[in-house]
Structure formats: structure tokens, C-alpha cells
Amino acid sequence: MKTNRVRNFIKKTSVFDGIFSKNIVLTYGLSITGIVAAAINVRNAIVISMAMVFALVPILIIASIIPKKVPKTLGIAFVSALSMVFIYLSSFVIKNIDSTAFESLGIYFPLMTVTSAGMIKANQHLHSGKPGFALADGIINSLGYFFAAFIVGAVREIFSNGTFMGMPMAITFKIPALKMTFGGFIVLAFLAAGCRAFGREIKRILFKLDNKINKNENAV
Known about the structure:
Order of helices and strands: HHHHHHHEEH
Shape: flat
Mean pLDDT: 84
Helix content: over 70%
Oligomer: single chain
Number of helices: 8
Number of strands: 2
Structural class: mainly alpha
Low-confidence stretches: none
Strand content: under 5%
Radius of gyration: 20 Å
């Protein structure tokens, strides 16, 4: 495959990075605690995803603008401390949006201050000098986290409570055990497998389209 075709293919599929092909939860298994333990319904999933935005996006931007003369260990410690500050500030916002869901998260909300995803991503952007790219990466990965949390929360709520966002649904078959942590792991495992299959199919379609376009160009 020619170099320009490789570049076009990567450019077309990169929009899915962080959501499907490189989802921090479904692909790398990062920061799954909040999802499997706390995302037992859609409202909790939304709240825990909002916490991820506050825990991830600001520290990636700050990590990217930290001067190179600052040692890496000190830089990571600094952004970790800032993550706690941002999560604390976010609690006032989220309480006003959905106090019930916020209170139901218990210890899992403050645990979002230092997530594995946040630390790994902060390390990747440290000293990069590219705050714009860090912002985009933080947003995309937060969307990927929301995607995983929302699906897991929705499935668990529908099939354990027979509701969706608190509204009753015509569900006669219920699995109360899905509320348990191991239920979250099971749903997340199936979602990860499905997401990987979907990602492969998207790449296959885009690759075929790229081949077709190049054949038409060569024919002309």
C-alpha cells in the first residue's frame, strides 16, 4: 500500500481513536472501577463520566505546558494534586445537576481524583508543549469513557430494575445480580468484545472505500 494511502487511511480512522479502537476502558482496561462498581444506572454513569472530564481534561492541558526542566516525577505529582482540586470543585457543579446520583456514588466519586487513565495520559502529554492536542485528546477519551459508562449503566438499569433513567419499561425478564460489581464486569466484557468487533468492521469498510477511490483515480 502506497504511503499516501496509508496516511489517508490513518487520517480517516483516527476520529474513532479514544472512542472505539483505543477506548481507555474497553481497549486498555483503564479506570474501570467507577464503571463496574458505581455505574448501576444511567444517572450514575453520567455523573461518573462528568467526573472523568474534570479529572482528565484539565490535567492533560496542564501537563502539556509544564516546562521540560521540571522532572517527570515532580510533574506527574503536580498534576495528580491538581486532579484532586478539580474533582473537589466539580462536586459543587455535579451536586446541583443531580444530587441523588452524586450521593449514591459514595467513595467512588473522590476516587476519580487519581485514575489510571489520567496518570497514563498525563505522562504521555507531559512536556509536549501542545495544549491544543492535549485538550482534544482529553475530550475524545472522556467521550470514550462516557460511551462505556453509559452503555454499562443502561444495560444494568434496564435488566436489573426494569427502568431507564428512572422511567419504567416493559421488561419482564430481570437479572437483579447485574447491580453487583461482578455484573458490571460481565456487561463491560461483552461491551469490550462488541466494540472491538465494531472497530474492526469500521476500519474494513473505510479501507475498502479507500481502495475503491484509489482505483477510480488510477483509472482516470
